[in-house]
Specification:
Bound molecules: dinuclear copper ion
Strand content: 35-45%
Distance between the termini: 69 Å
Mean pLDDT: 93
Number of domains: 2
CATH topology of the largest domain: Immunoglobulin-like
CATH architecture of the largest domain: Sandwich
Low-confidence stretches: none
Number of strands: 11
Largest sheet: 6 strands, mixed
Shape: elongated
Order of helices and strands: HEEEEEEEEEEE
CATH superfamily of the largest domain: Cupredoxins -  blue copper proteins
Helix content: 10-25%
Radius of gyration: 21 Å
Number of helices: 1
């Protein structure tokens, strides 16, 4: 039989406990707090993204698909540093699927007081869905440093 030093046994126990605790925390975040992992929904050419399709000027923003169900196409852009659109208004109870992409560099898209927080990469479309049950204003901000105007990248979702 292999002899294991008593300290070694303690460290094995500590490691096992850490694994269990972290698994529980991830489970609670995922199933209780609604933690979502954004996935690249689609690929898109950042050089032509504004020319036509859902990220062209005419198509950007909110669209109602069915009663209470919306999709929002949002474009993040540096120089000028801003989101298009920078304001979205939905009724209370609306379920909104956000499709966000970048026309240039890496940006972020975090909606305050929600579980939406995603990285926005040029060439990829990030997608997350959220239901807005309470009236209020939910600011969204860029969470990735994207240049000298980074701090100007913000907008808001108005739920009323
Ligand atoms: Cu866009 Cu920071």
């Amino acid at each position: 039989m292999i002899h294991i030093h008593v300290y070694e046994k303690w460290w094995i126990a500590v490691t096992a406990i850490m694994l269990i605790v972290l698994s529980v925390l991830v489970g609670v975040a995922g199933f209780v707090n609604g933690f979502q992992v954004p996935q690249p929904f689609a690929r898109i050419d950042p050089n032509t993204v504004k020319a036509s399709g859902p990220y062209s000027e005419a198509e950007l923003g909110l669209r109602e698909l069915a009663p209470g169900k919306y999709e929002a196409h949002i474009l993040a852009q540096a120089s000028p540093w801003r989101y298009y659109p920078s304001e979205i208004t939905v009724p209370v109870g609306a379920t909104v699927t956000f499709y966000v992409t970048s026309a240039d560099v890496q940006h972020g898209f975090k909606v305050q007081d929600t579980n939406i927080n995603m990285m926005v990469l040029p060439g990829q479309v990030a997608k997350l869905t959220r239901t807005f049950d309470k009236a209020g204003e939910f600011p969204y901000v860029c969470t990735e440093y994207c240049g000298v105007g980074h701090q100007n990248m913000y907008g808001k979702i108005i739920v009323k």
